[in-house]
Write a structure and sequence with these properties.
- By secondary structure, this protein is mainly beta.
- The chain has a single domain, classed as Immunoglobulin-like (Sandwich), CATH 2.60.40.1240.
- The protein is built from 1 helix and 13 strands, in the order αβββββββββββββ.
- The N terminus is likely disordered.
């Protein structure tokens, strides 16, 4: 069920961005003052309802530790710092952050499952009250792309309709970057 929620998040974000630019996905949403859309770049700190996050560093490569990208693909490796700011522990998942790229198919990728490296975010973890945690998220993407957006969308429990397992959408956060080969 948690994996389904993550996939639904990716589809929601990708489809909502499909109309952002004339040719499809707008990889630079920074020019918009659209309510509910928060934007930044590598090094910026963005504040969600539950935590602050900073994408500290991003690069691409074909191999990370023992994991090698499939033919025609490359890896995008992002170092992210999270700080709990909401006053209660937060359940987190390794694929809470997705990356998107501009393609005819509105490309999107979830983070690869934990186990590739010790610095990688676990598949599931708790961000404790006032805790700061840094980790790595690794994505496999087509090798022909270099410009991406990392996205996080707030999804709240629907207290008015408990049967709504999809929740209620809040703000969406985008960090635009170019993943240079390292």
């Amino acid at each position: 069920m948690k994996r389904l929620a993550s996939i639904l998040l990716v589809l929601t974000v990708a489809l909502s961005l499909a109309a952002c630019g004339e040719g499809g996905l707008n990889l630079n949403p920074g020019g918009s003052d659209e309510p509910g859309l928060k934007k930044g770049f590598v090094g910026d700190t963005l504040s969600t309802y539950w935590f602050d996050f900073t994408v500290n560093d991003v690069y691409s490569c074909t191999q990370y530790h023992d994991y090698t990208a499939s033919a025609g693909n490359k890896l995008v490796v992002a170092t992210i710092t999270l700080k709990n700011t909401c006053g209660e522990s937060i359940d987190m998942w390794g694929n809470d952050f997705v990356i998107l790229w501009d393609s005819e198919d509105d490309g999107a990728a979830l983070a690869l499952p934990a186990g590739i490296s010790d610095d990688q975010f676990p598949d599931e973890y708790v961000l404790k009250i006032n805790e700061t945690r840094a980790g790595t998220a690794i994505y496999e993407v087509p090798e022909d792309f270099r410009d991406f957006v990392m996205a996080f969308q707030e999804i709240y429990e629907d207290t008015e309709n408990p049967d709504n397992l999809d929740g209620v959408e809040g703000n969406t956060f985008f960090v635009s970057f170019t993943a240079e080969e390292k």
